[in-house]
């Protein structure tokens, strides 16, 4: 699993070398969560993306597309070679995910949409008696969108225990700290007050993430939010905890530095 | 496939003693007929889900008889659209209920990206369209909804002319594979249709034949006013064709082009801004393919902060049979 997470990070950096760069910081912070979800948690059939009994995943923080494409490639939804086309004219790999890419349920990128979509899916699965669950990965800055709380209030009220929100709590948004921009804490209490079961976890501890997700649903009759404490740019010392890592185009030299840092961090 | 009148209730032969009369069946607000029709459809189609945003009444109508086909998301229109898109993605047929201004403006991005962008079979059924909210004031008027929503790819936009057409439209779009915006008013309006007819999505209905000028109208009062204007014109020797353009998207281009080529010009009438709605859509077609004179009648570029009912607001906006007839007479008299 650690190898897979490492590879996700390396693939993100490679996509960052393409003409427009990519959202490196938020992709790296979500890398471990996505790795555990796609390799251990989500029930998927890559050869049959519309399998009726699958779990659904919505990347509400659509700008972390590079990390999503990396795990989709690892699971065989797309070919690894396609990753090199990221952002290029004619590619299926846009800066924010397109629905025509196998494995992508909804196009996302405008923040504040994903939890509503996943709630609708969860309701639909419940209504049609299917076993699948709906997962949405949200950014923490995204929680400043009011529509997130419309969705949270509604999902809590309707007791959607087949719905899981994961918050990539890296603490940074474009302008800096979330707490300095518009503060989110006490975040766990806020979700609890909306009727959600709350699990807090180190979002880079693969074992802890597995444990949390294995225990889902956390609470019968309630949706669960996993607050994954993460570090923006995690794994690449050059970017860790830096708001400038939000969107980066990596020159060959910068890429080498980043990759060296990534490998060194792993060797430690 | 759109249903035809022959398949519709009330269309078959002589009414039984117990059958309600046409007037009893349709002499109510279009939104009541919509609700009744949806409930009838939902009884035999478990895919239908009534998604409510605290509209009032649906919780008893649906919630009591078909609770498993009802969900109320509360006063939260953005979430209404996202949840509906999610439901549709799992194979269900959600009917998202809200007011037109809230659908088109407040939740516009969710409609654009989640509903239209995914081409999902969400049916957005919006009441209080145009100036029908009357004395509720400009926060509840929706005179820009068509301009906004007809620009969205995949979305079918239907504006029934009365309660009869509302039922036909709901039935005809029940199996539409993509998203729908159904634009309804608030209170009861005059019946345009006194007997069964064939309703087809995307096909304008000629309510009156004519050769001198064409009046193209959409929505309850505009269509009935267009008919009234045509009768006045006939008395003055002007032959006016009247088209009920119940589908704004996809627009019936053939009917518009035929009007442009066969008559002396087109007057458009709508309870919507002059900018961006039916009149604009008609102009887009004729300017490219059959240039002709077009006179657009609609709501001028201003907010209505008068306290007035729907008819009075329309009058203030200059939407009335006399204006329509005058404009049509000018076009009919102009050299071709």
How does this structure look, described?
The complex is a heterodimer of chains A (268) and B (336). By secondary structure, chain A is of the alpha/beta class. Chain A has one domain (2-267): Thiamin diphosphate (ThDP)-binding fold, Pyr/PP domains (Rossmann fold). Chain A is built from 10 helices and 7 strands. Chain A has helices at residues 2-16, 24-29, 31-41, 65-75, 114-127, 146-157, 178-182, 187-193, 206-214, 252-267, and strands at residues 56-59, 134-139, 163-169, 172-173, 176-177, 197-202, 224-229. The longest helix of chain A has 16 residues, at 252-267. Chain B has 336 residues and is α/β, with parallel strands linked by helices. Chain B folds into 2 domains: 5-183, Rossmann fold, CATH 3.40.50.970; 205-333, 3-Layer(aba) Sandwich (Rossmann fold). Chain B has helices at 22-26, 30-44, 58-65, 77-89, 100-106, 108-116, 145-149, 163-172, 220-235, 253-262, 278-289, 310-316, 321-333; strands at residues 48-52, 70-72, 93-99, 123-127, 156-158, 180-183, 205-208, 213-218, 240-244, 247-249, 266-273, 294-299. In chain B, helix 8 links the parallel strand 5 (156-158) and strand 6. In chain B, helix 4 (77-89) runs parallel beside helix 6 (108-116).
Topology:
The complex is a heterodimer of chains A (268) and B (336).
Chain A: H1 2-16, H2 24-29, H3 31-41, E1 56-59, H4 65-75, H5 114-127, E2 134-139, H6 146-157, E3 163-169, E4 172-173, E5 176-177, H7 178-182, H8 187-193, E6 197-202, H9 206-214, E7 224-229, H10 252-267
Parallel strand pairs in A: 1-2, 2-3, 3-7, 6-7
Antiparallel strand pairs in A: 4-5
Helix pairs in contact in A: 1-3, 1-4, 1-10, 3-4, 3-9, 5-6
Chain B: H1 22-26, H2 30-44, E1 48-52, H3 58-65, E2 70-72, H4 77-89, E3 93-99, H5 100-106, H6 108-116, E4 123-127, H7 145-149, E5 156-158, H8 163-172, E6 180-183, E7 205-208, E8 213-218, H9 220-235, E9 240-244, E10 247-249, H10 253-262, E11 266-273, H11 278-289, E12 294-299, H12 310-316, H13 321-333
Helix pairs in contact in B: 2-8, 4-6, 9-13, 10-11
Organism (chain B): Streptomyces flavotricini
Domain Transketolase-like pyrimidine-binding (chain B): 28-191
InterPro entries (chain B): PDH/Transketolase, THDP-binding, Transketo_C/PFOR_II, Transketolase-like_Pyr-bd, Transketolase_C
